[in-house]
Design goal:
Blueprint (H helix, E strand, L loop, with lengths): L1 H17 L1 H9 L4 H29 L2 H4 L5 E2 H8 L3 H13 L3 E5 L2 E4 L1 H7 L4 H14 L3 H7 L6 H4 L8 H24 L8 E5 L5 H9 L4 E6 L1 H13 L6 E5 L13 E5 L7 H14 L5 E6 L9 H14 L7 H10 L3 E6 L8 E6 L1
Parallel strand pairs: 4-5, 4-7, 5-6, 7-8
Antiparallel strand pairs: 1-3, 2-3, 8-10, 9-10
Length: about 375
């Protein structure tokens, strides 16, 4: 009965919202005017979203966040440093100011705006923006991408597991993950109690950003990274450069095919499972169950769907991103807990994180 009533309500709502007369009435009636204006703005934001994203991309390409990090600057000086005509720089700065990336200070001077300051202070976001050029090429024909099937885009060739022998792509991908890891690592570590852990194994851990963050936070912890040979070599170089060789190491292997190192009492999957299909996820979780020490904890940390509410980050952004890449999907915490249960882990549970849109955490025990 509730489902039937809901369908009737949705049909009535949609007929009203599609009626120009009803929209005019809502816009003219003071009580409904704020909601009408908000709806119109959100609709326009959907239409203009690509332009907004490209405004951010142009600001990154011109180095504006770095140029303005020390305070307000004249638009003319910014134009010369970016190699743009002054009129073009004014256009970019005004567009960025409308998006709260910059702030017009008067006298032809601009400073970082609220979102610009947050962007500037978040490591890795500029690299992610540059990376979006690959994704946007695939999205130039979104219907074609959907018709062609998973992995039809150029993003697949950039993903290391799509081309196992492409060492340059492997390092590029790992570099991007390392650059964007700090904003994830802090949330994940804050959600966990690692006070009794002794050895942590990070599966698909790239060049060691997350594992080393754990080691720095917990002096008693030794950490290991398990990743493809090219990546493991780079991880060991980073570990040596950070003088962490007594507490950290990287081990070469492919977690889709090779057995995992045994004995760790914490095994982590940070932004890994959502890159892969069900069969691979089931296999790697079973391998983790076989490798983990008795009573150990497994950690899954990644963007997750919030179905049935349908979080746009999970369903829209990662939905198309992973389609172009060719594998995986954003799962709900309940789905991940079910997969952990199938792998014979006990007591799977979600853990709270500061910004769930970016990262959620699910843990379970061996």
């Amino acid at each position: 009965m509730a489902g039937v009533l809901h369908r009737h309500w949705v049909n009535l709502r949609n007929r009203l919202l599609a009626d120009p007369g009803f929209r005019r009435l809502g816009a003219s009636f003071p009580l409904f005017r704020p909601a009408a204006r908000d709806s119109a703005r959100r609709l326009f934001d959907l239409m203009a979203g690509f332009v907004y994203a490209q405004t951010l991309a142009a600001a990154v390409e011109c180095g504006l966040f770095g140029h303005l990090a020390g305070g307000a600057r004249e638009a003319g000086a910014l134009a010369r440093e970016a190699g743009l005509p002054e009129g073009a720089m004014h256009r970019l700065l005004r567009a960025g100011a409308a998006l709260a990336l910059f702030e017009d200070m008067g006298d032809d001077r601009y400073a970082l705006g609220p979102l610009g300051a947050a962007f500037s202070g978040t490591p890795g976001l500029d690299r992610m923006v540059r990376h979006h050029g690959v994704l946007y090429r695939d999205l130039a024909d979104p219907v074609g991408l959907l018709k062609a099937g998973p992995g039809a885009g150029s993003l697949r060739d950039w993903w290391p597991y799509g081309q196992p022998d492409a060492h340059e792509q492997t390092l590029d991908y790992s570099g991007l993950m390392a650059a964007t890891q700090p904003m994830i690592a802090e949330q994940v570590i804050d959600s966990l109690d690692l006070s009794r852990a002794r050895r942590l194994l990070d599966i698909g851990g790239g060049t060691g950003a997350f594992a080393l963050a754990c080691a720095r936070r917990h002096d008693h912890l030794t950490v290991e990274v398990f990743d493809l040979p090219t990546v493991a070599e780079a991880a060991n170089a980073r570990i040596a450069a950070e003088a962490m060789t007594t507490r950290a190491r990287a081990i070469a292997g492919d977690f889709r095919r090779d057995p995992l190192p045994t004995g760790a009492d914490v095994i982590t999957f940070v932004r890994i499972l959502h890159d892969h299909g069900e069969d691979t996820v089931r296999a790697v979780l079973a391998a983790a169950r076989a490798a983990i020490a008795p009573g150990g904890m497994v950690v899954v940390a990644e963007p997750m769907s919030d179905a049935p509410r349908r979080d746009p980050m999970a369903e829209a952004y990662f939905g198309f991103y992973l389609r172009a890449m060719g594998h995986g999907r954003a799962r709900t915490p309940r789905e991940i807990m079910r997969l952990l249960d199938e792998a014979d882990f006990r007591s799977p549970r979600p853990r709270a994180t500061a910004i769930p849109m970016i990262c959620r955490v699910v843990t379970a025990r061996a």
